[in-house]
Amino acid sequence: MASILGPAWTPVALLVLSNVFMTFAWYGHLKFTDKPLWIVILASWGIAFVEYCLAVPANRIGAQVYSAAELKTMQEVITLVVFAVFSVWYLGQALTLNHAVGFALIAAGAFFVFKGPL
Length: 118
Hints:
Elements: H1 2-27, H2 37-62, H3 68-89, H4 97-115
């Protein structure tokens, strides 16, 4: 994948995929409240393993282009976008104006991380 997208875009793609898996690992079980907790923990660990297999190379490849702070900021913004879609699509929970304002403030913080020194 690194050769197809290059070191700038490969970590973005891998982080999106890893966050899809992690969001399901952390929140997917909320639809299965009838299952014993130990079962959903084991299932979540299995899903999280796939997430790590994507996130670790994303950061290794991304470190060629981005600082650690930029990679972490990118990961957090991707996490919010993936979670917002997951929350609406999978959990059926609406996003409110408060969510939009909070996400916008986080996006403003990401802007300053990537902008560089003031």
